[in-house]
User: Which sequence fits this backbone?
């Protein structure tokens, strides 16, 4: 049984005491470690993004979430998963919100890309450590490295940001939580560079709003994973 305590509030300073170190970790590993490993081994940087990102960034997010839950008096159990973290059974309404959100994200992100191209000309929004050519013969093995990374990426972020932090932030910020939450989530991605960060704005704020609206963390998994995974596969096979 969990030793259930009253959920403690998480205000601006407490939230950013978590967002800022996570952003610094992301920046340092992508700015210094990944290029170093690529240069030393001669392997493309995307490989080390999968390895370093999965082990060095998203796994620590999961560990952080577990430690926060432990400090609250919770154990990882079905009741914690459903009650505290709000990974509840998906309803038809949750699915409608998820898919509507993905459509909106696609529309607004596309408009932002077109607007940026008009202002700065054609550009690749992907940071250098994420850039790669479509997979070719002898490189399809990268998919087997990407798969566990992708799981850790989505699980790590949705577990900590939406499952652990969001419910506590709602106590303080109420209906405006999604704004503060989105700002923190955006800060975490600052290492991606301004081009990709601007393009992520629709996802960052629309998803934050919808997860808060539905109070179901699986909605975040559907939206985040539903955009992240298919996009990578489309690029990998030269579809976009």
Assistant:
């Amino acid at each position: 049984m969990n030793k259930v305590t009253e959920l403690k509030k998480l205000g601006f300073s407490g939230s950013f005491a978590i967002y800022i170190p996570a952003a610094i970790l992301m920046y340092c590993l992508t700015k210094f470690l990944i290029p170093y490993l690529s240069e030393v081994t001669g392997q493309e940087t995307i490989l080390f993004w999968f390895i370093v990102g999965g082990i060095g960034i998203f796994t620590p997010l999961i560990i952080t979430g577990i430690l926060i839950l432990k400090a609250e008096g919770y154990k990882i159990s079905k009741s914690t998963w459903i009650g505290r973290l709000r990974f509840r059974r998906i309803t038809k309404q949750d699915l409608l919100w998820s898919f509507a959100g993905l459509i909106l994200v696609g529309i607004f992100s596309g408009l932002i890309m077109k607007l940026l191209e008009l202002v700065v000309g054609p550009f690749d929004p992907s940071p250098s450590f994420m850039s790669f050519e479509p997979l070719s013969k002898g490189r399809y093995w990268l998919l087997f490295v990407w798969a566990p990374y992708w799981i850790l990426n989505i699980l790590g972020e949705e577990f900590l940001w939406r499952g652990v932090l969001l419910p506590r932030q709602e106590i303080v910020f109420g209906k405006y939580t999604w704004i503060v939450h989105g700002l923190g989530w955006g800060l975490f991605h600052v290492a991606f560079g301004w081009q990709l960060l601007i393009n992520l704005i629709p996802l960052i704020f629309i998803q934050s709003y919808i997860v808060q609206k539905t109070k179901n963390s699986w909605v975040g998994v559907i939206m985040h994973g539903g955009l992240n995974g298919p996009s990578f596969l489309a690029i990998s096979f030269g579809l976009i």
The mean pLDDT is 94.
